[in-house]
Design goal:
This protein is mainly alpha-helical. The chain is built from three helices and no strands. The N and C termini lie far apart (about 55 Å).
Amino acid sequence: MKKLNVENPFFEFMGRIGDVMLVNILFLIFSIPIVTIGASYTAMFRTFGELREGKTVFRSFFTAWKAALRRTVP
C-alpha cells in the first residue's frame, strides 16, 4: 500500500501542479479589469514565493493582492 500513501512523491508533485494552476486562475480572474493587472502580477509572484514555505494559495494571494493594490492605487 505504499503506492497509495499521500506523502508519495507523485501526489506531492500533483499537489504542486494544482497549486500553480490555482494561482494562474486567480491571476486571470483578478486581472480582468485592466487597472488591477499590476497588483495581480505582483500577487502572483509573491504567492509563488510563499508556496515554497508551505502557505496556502488563496490566503497568500488575497493578502498580497490587497497589499499591492493599496500601493498602486492612491
